[in-house]
Design a protein that fits this description.
Blueprint: H1 7-26, E1 41-44, H2 48-59, E2 64-69, H3 80-91, E3 96-99, H4 112-124, H5 127-131, E4 142-150, E5 156-165
Parallel strand pairs: 1-2, 3-4
Antiparallel strand pairs: 2-5, 4-5
Length: 171
């Protein structure tokens, strides 16, 4: 028993699939050229828009780009999106440094910095994957500082993350 499908239906199905496929490709974000304006101060929001904004700022080789937060973020709960940028800094030869609050010599919890280091290490496991993503290449040539502060409860939280352009190597 052979089924009969009109040729016209086959052509419509093929053209429909082709149009849908092309439309899907055109909506994919491109990080080849920054569409967002470069900014020296950003607010972290766990969306692709943040990646585009940070990419645009780092691509313009701004000397300093600061990332602040809308909500309190503990160093142990640094968002994965930001961890990926930290891993990209390290993969590009930069350093990630944690600066404790100015008012204290030692953190309240001695394991705080150790657990933050393990968090950053887990992010660095994805460094090979990140190197294939062109947006993270903009972090090459930067160091990152995770500036901590104490909240009203006495807990260390991330005040901001600062990306500093490394000075050009002199020959």
């Amino acid at each position: 028993m052979q089924s009969y499908i009109p040729r016209k239906f086959n052509k419509i199905a093929i053209y429909s699939c082709l149009v849908i496929g092309l439309a899907a490709c055109s909506n994919m974000p491109s990080f080849d050229s920054p569409a967002e304006p470069a900014q020296t101060e950003l607010r972290f929001v766990d969306l692709q828009k943040f990646d585009r904004e940070l990419y645009a700022s780092l691509s313009q080789s701004l000397p300093t780009v600061e990332v602040a937060f809308y909500n309190e973020v503990t160093p142990n709960a640094l968002p994965e999106r930001l961890q990926n940028w930290m891993a990209a800094v390290e993969t590009g030869g930069g350093n990630v440094k944690v600066v404790p609050p100015k008012s204290s010599v030692q953190p309240k919890d001695p394991f705080l910095l150790l657990s933050l280091a393990s968090t950053l290490w887990s992010a660095s496991k994805t460094a090979k994957e990140l190197s294939t993503n062109s947006r993270f290449n903009s972090a090459v040539g930067y160091d990152a500082i995770i500036q901590l502060k104490r909240d009203e409860k006495g807990t260390n939280v991330v005040e901001k993350v600062i990306f500093n352009k490394k000075p050009a190597a002199t020959k």
